[in-house]
Amino acid sequence: MTITPLDCLQCGTQYTYIGVGPHSAECPDCESTCVSPVGELRVTDNDYWSVPNGTGELRIYTVDEHERSFEFRVGFQKNRGTLTTITIDGTSVSAKQCSAAWPIQDLLNESLARYGITELTNPMNSTNTTTQSQ
Ligand SMILES: [Zn+2]
After folding, report:
1. Which sequence spans correspond to the domains of the chain?
2. Which one has a higher pLDDT value, 47 or 9?
3. What are phi and psi of 69, to 5 degrees?
4. What is the rounded distance in angstroms from the CA atom of residue 54 to the CA atom of residue 25?
5. Phi/psi at 130 (nearest 5 deg)?
6. 42: how many CB neighbours lie within 10 A of its CB?
7. Does residue 22 carry a pLDDT above 90?
8. More confident of the two residues 57 and 20
9. Dist. CA 93 → ligand 1 center (Å)
């Protein structure tokens, strides 16, 4: 049995899935499918552009175990990148809107390293800020 913390990027609900097998990938409150990925994400494609001064953007296309598409957009300046936008099945949300951190660091690092990006700022679940309300 696994306990999976999930969050909905549409209405902000946080909930927990307890059980075996993939969760239903749907928010219990608003029925949005913009919830955390199910199981392991796998990278299907990358898209990369940059201009001569070192500014550019990397898109990392992944799918989860429900074959939902997750696109991670990373803006970068030379070797420093920032996760800006996550697009789930065509719905884009700001990475800052994510209240739960997804275990995506290793996944992203693999693609980032390929393009020489060695530092990544991930604004998801910014627990290191002092603006937490509890
Ligand atoms: Zn929701």
Report:
1. 37-121
2. 47
3. -95, 135
4. 37
5. -100, 10
6. 12
7. no
8. 57
9. 13
pLDDT (mean) for 115-126: 88
pLDDT value at 133 more than 80? no
Spacing, Cα 58 to ligand 1 middle (Å):
28
- Ligand 1 center from residue 120 Cα (angstroms): 28
Q: What's the 66 CA to ligand 1 centre distance in angstroms?
A: 18
How far, in Å, from the CA of 74 to the mean position of ligand 1?
Answer: 25
Q: What is the mean pLDDT of residues 65-80?
A: 94
CA of 39 to the centre of ligand 1 (A): 19
Strand locations in 64-97 (E): 69-77, 80-88, 91-94
Model pTM above 0.85: no
> Ligand 1 center to residue 35 CA distance, Å?
8
